[in-house]
């Protein structure tokens, strides 16, 4: 690896402005733009599918609130319709832009290429905060599923120590490398899905299809309903921050996204149909953790314990997958000179140690929030980031028509715009239904990012921290003026 250029200076062998990353084109199969140590293996398609599964879903844990908020019919319809409106377009965009820019910056690089480095940083800030908030949810769900069996985990010091211990163990898994994360995701995924397969078989003699059609439009909590659906069907773009760690991303990433979409949707609908169809409806009982009670009613205590164990394992899988994306995103931003250079350093396992520690610290700070507060806050921030992604996707289609795209969404520019109208409308609805508290907190987080980027440039100018651009990364059609430091750092 060549020594990175300092202070944001472009590499000498960078592509001419306006060209689309020719260095990507010349890399051998299985290589990313940023070279890895030779001993660090890359992700193949099966571990990648399960990592995507855990970044988006992890199983049906957490979808219970959709029934409590709106009843069986709207819950089932939501998990049938929303994937077409939201999940498929987001996965298609991720497949095209993730293969166009196969590096760990992911969506940060997409937005920076289309809108400039300032907005690329804002995208990274909002998505990182949203991801950390999302990860803070998994200890909450983990303990919610176990507190019925271990009441002491409902609050107080035992709950606090449980959160600390779980976070420490899962952070260590991330430190050990993406190969470990990938195989952990496979094992946890199989274990987490199996009890619901069994529960579905047991429910067959008791199914009453009429129960699926129950709806009361006058008694719907639209805010909770939409936030629950949205939270359970987004984050397809998170895998883009691991693109530089994927074996042959031009072919592997689109295939993995295709299989993962099917996996996720079936993983939601199958237990939802079993639970609502086999038991009389009591909407008041349908909240996070209720699938364990359903399992007990249908199969007995043994199945309840299995579902609770699967929930615990699933939350472990979601935690490690989300932390991987968050930490590699910070590393990718550092390799583009958006963050201090120490974020780009890899451990001896090839992992971004500083990014992992930062992400784990954020999780611990936010883990005291409630389930509903976490979901609403992360959705609000995520919506802003997705607006920038949609805009970047269209602008790159218009401005860089000849750019190399190993995978291309099979639509023209007008078709792409039409594809994005429904998800954009959904974003407007989700934002409009947010509470004032969630809106103020989320907008405050956005405001921090708006001043943080010029603050980092000031720190760079003063020479207080080192910023570097990895010269192995290709040009992304971004001009970043080198900052002359007042007091250059010693080499």
TrEMBL record:
Instruction: List keywords of the entry alphabetically.
Output: Cell membrane, Membrane, Symport, Transmembrane, Transmembrane helix, Transport
Predominant location category = membrane
Example of a GO cellular component annotation carried by this entry: plasma membrane
Which one Pfam family would you cite for this protein? AA_permease_2
Gene Ontology molecular function? polyamine transmembrane transporter activity; symporter activity
Q: Which residues form a coiled coil?
A: none
Annotated compartments: Cell membrane
Q: How does it sit in the membrane?
A: Multi-pass membrane protein
Question: For this UniProt entry, which segments traverse the membrane?
Answer: 34-54, 66-86, 181-202, 257-281, 301-321, 350-367, 379-398, 410-432, 438-456
Which top-rank group of organisms is this from? Answer: Eukaryota
Name this protein carries in UniProt? Polyamine transporter PUT1
Similarity field: Belongs to the amino acid-polyamine-organocation (APC) superfamily. Polyamine:cation symporter (PHS) (TC 2.A.3.12) family.
């Amino acid at each position: 690896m060549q020594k990175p250029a300092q202070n944001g200076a472009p590499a000498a062998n960078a592509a001419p402005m306006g060209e689309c990353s020719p260095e990507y084109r010349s890399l051998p199969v299985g290589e990313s733009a940023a070279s890895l140590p030779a001993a660090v293996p890359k992700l193949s398609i099966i571990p990648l599918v399960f990592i995507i599964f855990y970044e988006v879903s992890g199983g049906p844990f957490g979808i219970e609130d959709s029934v409590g908020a709106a009843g069986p019919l709207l819950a089932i319809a939501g998990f049938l319709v929303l994937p077409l409106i939201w999940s498929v377009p987001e996965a298609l965009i991720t497949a095209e832009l993730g293969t166009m820019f196969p590096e760990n910056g992911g969506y940060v690089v997409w937005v920076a290429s289309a809108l400039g480095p300032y907005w690329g940083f804002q995208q990274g800030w909002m998505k990182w905060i949203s991801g950390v908030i999302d990860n803070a949810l998994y200890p909450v769900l983990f303990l919610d599923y176990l507190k019925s069996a271990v009441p002491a985990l409902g609050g107080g010091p035992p709950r606090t120590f449980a959160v600390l211990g779980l976070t420490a163990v899962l952070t260590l898994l991330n430190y050990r490398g993406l190969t470990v994360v990938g195989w952990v995701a496979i094992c946890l995924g199989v274990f987490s899905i199996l009890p619901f397969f069994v529960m579905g078989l047991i429910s067959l003699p008791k199914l009453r299809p009429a129960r699926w059609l129950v709806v009361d439009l006058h008694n719907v909590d639209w805010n909770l309903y939409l936030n629950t659906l949205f939270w359970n069907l987004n984050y397809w773009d998170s895998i883009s921050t691991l693109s530089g760690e994927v074996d042959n991303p031009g072919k592997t990433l689109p295939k993995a996204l295709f299989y993962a979409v099917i996996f996720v949707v079936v993983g939601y609908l199958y237990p939802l149909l079993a639970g609502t169809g086999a038991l009389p409806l009591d909407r008041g009982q349908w909240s996070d953790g209720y699938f364990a009670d359903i399992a007990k009613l249908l199969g007995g205590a043994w199945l309840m314990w299995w579902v609770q164990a699967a929930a615990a394992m699933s939350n472990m899988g979601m935690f490690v997958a989300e932390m991987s994306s968050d930490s590699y995103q910070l590393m990718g931003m550092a390799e583009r000179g958006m963050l201090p250079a120490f974020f780009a350093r890899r451990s001896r396992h090839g992992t971004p140690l500083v990014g992992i520690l930062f992400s784990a610290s954020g999780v611990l700070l936010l883990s005291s929030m409630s389930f509903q507060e976490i979901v609403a806050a992360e959705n609000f921030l995520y919506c802003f980031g997705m607006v920038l992604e949609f805009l970047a996707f269209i602008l790159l289609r218009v401005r860089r028509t000849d750019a190399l795209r190993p995978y291309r969404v099979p639509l023209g520019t007008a078709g792409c715009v039409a594809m994005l109208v429904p998800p954009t409308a959904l974003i407007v609805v989700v934002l409009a239904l947010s509470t004032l508290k969630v809106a103020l907190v989320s907008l405050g987080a956005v405001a921090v990012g708006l001043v943080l980027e010029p603050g980092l440039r000031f720190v760079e100018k003063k020479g207080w921290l080192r910023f570097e651009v990895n010269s192995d990364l290709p040009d992304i059609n971004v001009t970043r003026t080198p900052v002359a430091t007042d007091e250059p750092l010693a080499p």
